[in-house]
Amino acid sequence: MATEFRSVWISDLHLGTRWTNVDALNTFLRDLSCQKLYLVGDIFDFWVLDKNWYWPTSHNEVMLNIFRISEEGTEVIYVPGNHDDIFRGYDGMSMSGIRMANSDTHTTADGRRFVVTHGDEFDRVVANHRWLAKLGARADNFIRWLSKLINDFLGRFNVPEWQAPAFFKHSIKGVCKLGSSFERSLVSLAGELGCNGVICGHVHKTALKEFDNRLYCNDGDWIDNASALVEHTDGNLELLDCKTHALRL
């Protein structure tokens, strides 16, 4: 499938962790052609990097691909999230050709307006109990590490992989923030701003649904998935599975 789009949204790459689908990400970025590329937060995971530095060449390649896309004429907009909120102090500035914006408004080819934000402001745990959110993130990393260790061992004996319980896989933070209240809060924000919908990330769960005649769009993540939200030249929005390039994820 051709990877030429009017606009593309990706988020939650979590560069600096061992769980990013970095090979699929680099393949996607190498072939990507679009007028606008939105990086919708948690591109870097400073919550992990602050404790344990991990930065292989493949993660550096991601950044080089993004800089190349920018240099080739694509407008790149970086909307920081909670794991890379250090960049929120650069709102309105340009860094290496990438425009920094704590939130943005995008107008599709068919005239619809969407507010673009990471979404963590509407996560009760992150907003009110940051320490619990960080604890949940560390628990999630530990369970992923333990799961890999166990499955590497089981693989030697051709035993089926152990599937970590969903509660642990998504962490305390993830469990608390999932649900329609998060989605409806963001759709309400779109209404307050006079927009037709919202585009966000944060919850690592793709979505393209309607509430109160407004669209809630979530581009997913690159940890448990490899997904993007794309806008075609006619303004139509669709979700993309970037491992298979199949639309309607």
Please tell me about this protein's structure.
The chain has 249 residues and is α/β, with parallel strands linked by helices. The chain contains seven helices and 13 strands. It has helices spanning 22-31, 46-49, 57-71, 124-128, 130-155, 166-177, 180-192; strands at 4-10, 33-39, 75-78, 94-95, 98-100, 104-107, 113-116, 197-200, 207-211, 214-218, 227-231, 237-241, 246-247. An eight-stranded mixed sheet has the order 4-5-3-2-1-11-12-13, with helices on one face. β9 and β10 form a beta hairpin. α1 packs parallel to α3 (57-71) and α5 runs antiparallel to α6 (166-177). The chain is globular. Residues 170-177 have low confidence and may be disordered.
Annotate the secondary structure layout.
Blueprint: E1 4-10, H1 22-31, E2 33-39, H2 46-49, H3 57-71, E3 75-78, E4 94-95, E5 98-100, E6 104-107, E7 113-116, H4 124-128, H5 130-155, H6 166-177, H7 180-192, E8 197-200, E9 207-211, E10 214-218, E11 227-231, E12 237-241, E13 246-247
Parallel strand pairs: 1-2, 2-3, 3-5, 7-8, 8-10
Antiparallel strand pairs: 1-11, 4-5, 6-7, 9-10, 11-12, 12-13
Summary of the model, kept short:
The protein is 34% helix and 23% strand. It has 249 residues and is of the alpha/beta class.
What kind of sheet is the major sheet? 8 strands, mixed
| Termini gap | 14 Å
**Gyration radius, rounded:** 18 Å
* Low-confidence regions: 170-177
SSE run: EHEHHEEEEEHHHHEEEEEE
Residue share in helix: 25-40%
Overall mean pLDDT: 85
Portion in strands: 15-25%
How many beta-strand runs?
A: 13
